[in-house]
Amino acid sequence: xxxxxxxxxxxxxxxxxxxxxxxxxxxxxxxxxxxxxxxxxxxxxxxxxxxxxxxxxxxxxxxxxxxxxxxxxxxxxxxxxxxxxxxxxxxxxxxxxxxxxxxxxxxxxxxxxxxxxxxxxxxxxxxxxxxxxxxxxxxxxxxxxxxxxxxxxxxxxxxxxxxxxxxxxxxxxxxxxxxxxxxxxxxxxxxxxxxxxxxxxxxxxxxxxx
Length: 210
Description:
Layout lengths: L66 H10 L5 E6 L5 H14 L7 E5 L5 H7 L3 H10 L4 E4 L9 E7 L5 H14 E9 L1 H11 L3
Parallel strand pairs: 1-5, 2-3, 2-4, 4-5
């Protein structure tokens, strides 16, 4: 009796399609993008550099602008600061500004580099410090050791800082229309505005004469 060849066994492949990469995570609350970092604020977690090696002698430069003047010229040629809008209702703009401030400080920004402005109710810190007199209050801005909080109505007295945060938390339209363009002029690297984006855009445009 002829032998019937065994039919080859077909094994089902255990290897299915490879799993695709996980989908992107859901977007979180808008976070301020840290602006250009100054040399005075190193990135957190980085070791402090050791003593620098002695540099090789360089030929003395001829007559020209001093290093301070050259730095000043570079500052004059600096582009406009980065603008970030964080959507927030008027009654939540101050909370959004506080969160933005926390994130910036966590990213390595020095407290003395940040100015926070409000258009409606003043920040509680400013209210408290003003009870000791305006001279004492504004003197803290001049030291530049910590975050300074001011009201938009007094923005002309506020000094320029690398980062300015504006909470559009109500107030009259005139104050907001004055505070936003002035804040943009005082922000060296980053301006964060917490409020209604359309309203903010209109106020910035009006202040720039658009």
